[in-house]
Fold this protein.
Amino acid sequence: MLRPFRVVQPSSVEEAAAELRRLGEQARVYAGGAELVLLMRHGLVDADVLVDIKHIPSIGEIRWDGDAVRIGGAATHYQIERDAVVRAHLPLLATAAATIGNIRVRNQSTLGGNLCFADPHGDPATPLLVHDATVTLSRGGRERQLPLSEFLLATYETAIEPDEVLVEVDAPPLPTDLGHAYLRIERYHRPTVNVAVAAGRSDGQVASASRLAA
């Protein structure tokens, strides 16, 4: 069972970062809560306060800036699966998002939460690594960008600081001369293995497959 907790709803990233600094280990960032609430229910994570970032303007938006797709940290997997910009420029990610859990899970869980949880069985990180994605982490007044490959440190471990919020994921499209594919092997709606690959072809044969993540 869940023990009692309090929810605060900051209206800006600055307010969210300030709450995280003030509350320290008592607080957890809450967006979709698909993984977080499950862990809290089983007593694996303690939180007296959830800092709800879902209602912060722009943090759930998806847009194309001419060079990369910019996905807000609170964008849900269902948004990503259905978004025309993602489908056009990041088809690997759209495919991966459509395989996550079920429609209820995809409507609840968010890209930022998934990446910050750093579950090795998670889906989105694999195609995003193929796309050389970067994440933007914000303390409100100060932002920093990290390649996703440097943000993900180990199983359930990332480079995010306690008072930072993952506000955006940026991913450029693949070169047009590369083919791509995503494969997922699952058990009980959870991937046991997922692979994303982008490869070049010459004279009917694979000439390069340098962009590979699993």
